[in-house]
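Q: Given only this backbone (421 positions), what sequence would you predict?
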């Protein structure tokens, strides 16, 4: 039986935030999370990259590192990794069946996300990891990952207005939910957030007497050589946001060093250098053509992507699909420029926005686009884009991590194993 079919009965329409179900479920499984030191990483954008940096550095230092992230790009196993290696399908299947058998209520069945989160904790406990790096799924306060009372450190990467339907209409509402992962007297590492929401985070930090650091981005010295806190390192991931993400990782590692964890400067340098994170401002080859892919699906991520694209000094042939729930107009305003072209496609197997409606919106927002076309699949759009492309254009695929995952899942050179190796 496939992992997807095993989890199908727990698939619910919408989001069901709350901690009662996950706490009860973990109690039925002997509370594996209570025995594992953990780092909790929340925020809007950059969570996955920070988790990737942290797990790579800790692995370099010789620790056995569990990493739990979401969503997956290609298959479920990539959410749950130890030392960058995903759980095997057979092991995940066995654990999910064990979890299903432990559920003895018909009234408040756990959600799909709660099941896979519990599976991560069970696996990490079984495999006796030294530490777990855990990414928040949605929000923070009521997210299923928010079950540990004493994290080694809590990280907030960034904040923008996303998932406001569940978290509240304003960025202050969202900030309150994100700050819900802070724990009494546990260190907090804060990334770049707007002046509007800084007081929200600071108030929560003060109320809980948390040691804290507001992190400034690393600086570029030359090419991809960066420096933070006098540590010089080569950045493997592209985009200006990685100056913030890598600095957050280093600051978090500093907290662990001060707690007695044996992590050298060389471990930090080599760990960052070896970090891989698929589908975020990444160049890939498709039929001998270089294509830039990025899962940018909200205005803040779109702004970062546009910043990188601008450094290429070329017009863009965009291939995009977006989910129905996203802020399409704001993403388009960040990405689209005069003389760009745009191909719009559906996001397969998800609640996709209608490409025709997106085309109308894009034309209103950027009327001087060279071309706006809808296609039935990402691959037919790619064929057309490559035929259209000249030396002064770059092809960029964006708008949804699910779209990027669908694309990569159809490439023989990309499997979950290569993603995490």
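A: Predicted residues:
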């Amino acid at each position: 039986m496939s992992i997807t079919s095993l989890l199908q009965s727990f698939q619910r329409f919408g989001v069901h935030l709350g901690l009662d179900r996950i706490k009860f479920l973990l109690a039925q499984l002997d509370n594996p999370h209570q025995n594992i030191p953990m780092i909790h990483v929340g925020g809007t954008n950059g969570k996955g990259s920070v988790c990737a940096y942290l797990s790579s550095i800790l692995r370099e230092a010789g620790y056995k590192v569990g990493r739990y992230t979401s969503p997956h790009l290609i298959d479920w196993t990539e959410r749950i990794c130890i030392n960058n290696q995903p759980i095997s399908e057979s092991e995940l299947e066995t654990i999910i069946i064990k979890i299903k058998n432990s559920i003895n209520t018909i009234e408040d069945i756990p959600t799909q996300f709660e099941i896979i989160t519990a599976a991560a904790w069970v696996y990490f406990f079984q495999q006796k990891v030294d530490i777990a790096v855990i990414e928040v799924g949605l929000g923070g306060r009521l997210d299923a990952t928010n079950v540990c009372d004493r994290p080694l450190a809590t990280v907030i990467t960034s904040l923008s207005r996303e998932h406001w339907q569940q978290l509240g209409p304003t960025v202050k509402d969202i900030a309150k939910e994100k700050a819900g992962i802070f724990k009494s007297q546990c260190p907090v590492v804060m990334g770049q957030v707007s002046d509007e929401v800084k007081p929200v985070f600071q108030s929560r930090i003060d109320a809980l007497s948390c040691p804290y650091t507001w992190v400034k981005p690393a600086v570029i010295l030359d090419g991809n050589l960066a420096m933070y806190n006098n540590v010089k390192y080569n950045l493997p991931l592209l985009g200006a946001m990685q100056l913030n993400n890598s600095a957050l990782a280093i600051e978090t590692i500093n907290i662990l060093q001060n707690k007695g964890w044996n992590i050298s400067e060389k471990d930090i340098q080599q760990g960052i250098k070896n970090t891989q994170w698929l589908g975020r401002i990444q160049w890939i080859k498709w039929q001998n053509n270089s294509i830039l892919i990025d899962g940018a699906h909200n205005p803040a991520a779109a702004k970062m992507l546009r910043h990188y694209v601008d450094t290429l000094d070329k017009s863009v042939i965009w291939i995009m699909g977006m989910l129905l729930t996203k802020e399409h107009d704001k993403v388009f305003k960040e990405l689209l420029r005069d003389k760009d072209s745009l191909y719009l496609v559906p996001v397969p197997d998800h609640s996709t926005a209608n490409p025709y409606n997106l085309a109308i919106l894009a034309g209103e927002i950027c009327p001087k686009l060279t071309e706006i076309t809808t296609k039935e699949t990402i691959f037919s759009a790619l064929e057309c884009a490559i035929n259209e492309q000249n030396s002064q254009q770059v092809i960029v695929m964006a708008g949804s991590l699910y779209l990027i995952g669908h694309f990569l899942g159809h490439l023989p050179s990309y499997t979950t194993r290569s993603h995490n190796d």
